[in-house]
Amino acid sequence: MGTQRKSMLTSGIVRSAIRDSFVKLNPATMMKNPVLFVVEVGTFIVLLMTIFPVYFDTKDDIGFNATVFLILLFTLLFANFAEALAEGRGKAQANTLKKTKKEVLANKVVGNGTKTVPSVELRKGDIVVVSQGEMIPGDGEVVEGIASVDESAITGESAPVIKESGGDFSSVTGGTRVVSDRILVRITADPGESFIDRMISLVEGAKRQKTPNELALNTLLASLTLIFLIVVVTLAPIADYLNIELQVPVLISLLVCLIPTTIGGLLSAIGIAGMDRVTQFNVLAMSGKAVEAAGDINTMILDKTGTITYGNRMASEFIPVGGATRERVAEWAAVGSVKDDTPEGRSVLELMRTGSFRYDDMVAEGGEFIEFKAETRMSGIDLKDGRKVRKGAVDAVKRWVASQGGSIPADLDARGESIAREGGTPLAVAVDARILGLIYLKDTVKPGMRERFEQLRRMGIKTIMCTGDNPLTAATIALEAGVDDFIAESKPEDKIAVIRREQAEGKLVAMTGDGTNDAPALAQADVGLAMNSGTAAAKEAANMVDLDSDPSKIIEVVAIGKQLLMTRGALTTFSIANDVAKYFAIIPAMFTLAIPEMRVLNVMGLGTPMSAILSALIFNAIIIPLLIPLAMKGVSYKPLRASKLLGRNIAIYGLGGMIVPFVGIKLIDLVVHLWV
Amino acid sequence: MGILQIFVVLTILMLLVKPVGTYVYHVYSNEPNRTDRIFGWLERLIYLLIGLKNRAGMTWRRYALSFLLTNIVLVAIGYLLLRIQSALPMNPNGIGDMEETLSFNTIASFMTNTNLQHYSGETGLSYFAQMAVIMMMMFTSAATGFSVAIAFVRGLTSKGKTIGNFFEDFVKSHTRIFFPAAIVVTLLLVALQVPQTLDPTLTVTSLEGAAQRIAIGPVASLEAIKHLGTNGGGFFGANSAHPFENPNGLTNVIEILSMWVLPASLPYVYGRFAKNRKQGWVVFGAMLTLFLAFLTIAYTSELRGNPAINAMGIDASQGSMEGKEVRFGIAQSALFTTVTAAATTGTVNNMHDTLTPLGGLVPLAEMMLNVVFGGKGVGLVNMLMYAILGVFLCGLMVGRTPEFLGRKIEPKEMKLIAAAILMHPLIILAPTAIAFMTDLGKGAISNPGYHGITQVLYEYTSSAANNGSGFEGLADNTPFWNVTTGLVMLLGRYVSMIAMLAVAGSLVRKQWVPETIGTFRTDNKLFYAILIGTVLIIGALTFLPAIVLGPIAEHLTLG
């Protein structure tokens, strides 16, 4: 994993958040949040009563009204601050990104020559030449050449990556630098639509759209606000019948305490912070909806190679067949691999070294290397002396040997199958018409995967492993890694079929991918995580991109999604549970003067009616900044079964939400009572 | 002894829930079963008569439209009959036509299953009106409510696009539930001395030689459906406190059970539809818990008596017997009151106005919540609405977007539910405030001070919850009260019914999310606690300020 992009709370962010808290008082902005808008209107009314007491006949209460006004104002500022702080962190990240988005000059190919143009003038389809040391002027695909590219600007990873035309490593991102060689790039994005542009607007939160769940919650919060508005407005005439006159600031205080200001103030901060946590994790989510969908995932489709296992199948053993010796197998396997640059080939030579086998590399000198091809499924070397060495898939080598009239050793199939059963891949080694033995290629499961799948199971998520291996190999790896299901010999279209099948059962599916042929499946999946190293098509189709190109991160993304939802639920529950205590603080305070018997309802033993109202109001205000860290960090998440998680969270945020304000209001009252 | 009586009734109810629930489930599951042989021919005849050939499922819109239209037609007929009852037959006592606003109020009251009575049956209605308007609506409004509740449950628990056929549900509610049950209960009551006759009012000469008029009529049949349909409108002004409506302890128990057993069995029916009986028991458990809490308050409060009367040196060892019938006593009265408010029947066997403040708080609070069993399905629908709300609030805490019975709760459902939860406090508190701001409203209060607040609050709460019991003591047969309570009853019934049908219509079309170990479960103890918590925090706290000024202030100042 690359270095994580730090998004610390610098003093700069805090300062600008404080400024924004005031800017956001603008009623036009406030209107979007009905809960806070009601508070603002109340604040304004109390302000008028404080400034112009003559018109409202409130001269005697200036001190109280001014205090209420200040507390209400701070309630608003605290709520604004929470949102501004969350946005500020995003903006800081965006600024870092913007620095990489410098205006560069591009060498655009025109006819046979090139022309230097500013990068903003490049359009989709233009071809540019980028040489060593130059900045790639825009998102595109390498159409010619191979180069190493420093992508640290977007990934934070300092080691350069190889980009070449064709295949799955052809996409390049604007703002990254070519550190060696020279490539021709076809531009794939118009200015303003590039990957970095999208990234900036995402982390800035400028285009943040509310998710369906946020919208539904907002509806509920708005209707609760309306209900309490009805409660408070109708209370005055009812009390009036008893000749109890309720002061407007007192009614406004009751209203503000009852409406869900806590969650109303923190809701957008929770959403932004959730996105931010994903970004800090070096994953770019294209929408908040995608992050929430991650929390809802039922099924996860994982590629075996690269995600569950390291993917480099390493030679781990030489197994002789048909009476050959182990040394002989090793010797010829090595000869066949001398010029083989594939990881498998290199691992054979590596095993020679560590296993202290010996071979004469002069034998291969001058020989003609036969590359691995999908049709032949073999590679090897034709030696100068006419001998031919082949290594490859067992059945392919068998056919090759048979075609030369050679015989197949009796124990070959048995040995091969036993390797496959253990999750390995057997490669047969043959010289001319004789099969000498097998190379045991082993694919190693990444450490800790088993525990993670166990966690996923506890969260109710089913894991399906996709692999091109044969069923036997696939089953062994699946067992070793502890996945729930696997698809062997899978083709890209199999993935779509599985996704569709799961979705038809109402399940939400997550998958990772990087190749162009993964794109349709990435688009079909509810959460598609594309690797940044992958093709443009894959990144386009996915709704998340992992800048570190680590496919196993999908598991953490799910945890972040769940944590986001839990944080929202926990603070909503907390906020609504708070009302119980606030009622017991304010209701007796409102009526005790007129009905002294009401004091029995003052269960907290608050000092005076005035101090009770002010204490409840102060608690209501300061709980917002106190909860900002929780909203930003998210509630602690442990992968437990739902019933346990719920029981735990209900105890903390539901019961806690009822008890905390009783204690909090009492403590505040002890202080406030010193003055009033 | 009192507690034993209560315990016996509760036990009988518990024993009835499962068999009755099973029967009701089979009525509406629309799968062939044994009862078809008994009722099938009658239903086929009715279907033939009303031209209901293929009883295709309806979308929620069609269902809502069907039940509304049916209700509108019945309202029109009923209103007309009340306005011209003097010219119609079976009017041996020569009762005149009903006044416009009172007719509006009465029709709104009976069509919405409220049965708030601003008239007195023995002097305001002919026998024909009692039977053709009042009893007809007692059947049809109960059948409407039952059908809508079942349609809602179907929406929650089935897949597809439709939530059943209203006309089929409506017909079956009559033929398989209310007619047979009403016949049985009527016969039982007749056997226990409840009158059932078309003879005019008796005039007898009392021992002092004065002429006394004794009102009689087809009482037993009305009494049966009054309770079975959780209607509550009495034949006589004194309702079930009247010795001809409710002559003894046994009829009292029959009346309690007949209004209680259908609402109480609905959660079980819901569990059957959901193919998970535990879902039903969780809802039932939450309802029963709230019920027992309320019953305890009512019983102990009435038993403790009225301190003001105790202070006068009057023997209060029996408890607060003011406004209660000696033949029922505290236990049977407290139980009846708690049940009638829970099942939103509104029948009374004692005067709620004279209950102790906390005793009077019980029916008031039950109607404010409107989820403690509730009448003809409304209680279940409301409780399920709170369940969805509970899921929405707490469900996020398992780290998934909220799902109820495998369906995602999204903005559309929340908007509809928001409209429903908003409506109840709005139509209770707003008219209460208006009543206190106008002399038209204030003038009707017979008992100023805190009790007056309770009187007004009770009147609108009873209307909004479609309960219909009166706190009495309120001079409410005036155009102001007739019109405002009439409107409150209509809004209280139809807004939430339509909103909830829309929720059902939206949920029924949704893709099901399979249940996993990571799913928020709604069939365990934890959810039972969440459900009660949601009802108390969202439903009850809303009314706390008003209650504090009414019954609680009265209680605290009583001494």
UniProtKB/TrEMBL annotation, chain A:
Places the protein is found: Cell membrane; Membrane
Matches recorded under Pfam families: E1-E2_ATPase, Hydrolase
GO cellular component, one term: plasma membrane
Residue numbers binding ATP: 340, 344, 372-379, 391
EC number(s) from the headed UniProt entry: 7.2.2.6
Location of the P-type ATPase A domain: 106-204
Binding site for Mg(2+): 514, 518
Principal EC category: translocase
Transmembrane segments: 35-56, 62-82, 215-238, 250-273, 580-598, 610-630, 650-675
Active site: 303
Membrane topology type: Multi-pass membrane protein
Quaternary structure and interacting proteins, as annotated: The system is composed of three essential subunits: KdpA, KdpB and KdpC.
Record NCBIfam families: ATPase_P-type, kdpB
Its biological purpose: Part of the high-affinity ATP-driven potassium transport (or Kdp) system, which catalyzes the hydrolysis of ATP coupled with the electrogenic transport of potassium into the cytoplasm. This subunit is responsible for energy coupling to the transport system and for the release of the potassium ions to the cytoplasm.
Protein name: Potassium-transporting ATPase ATP-binding subunit
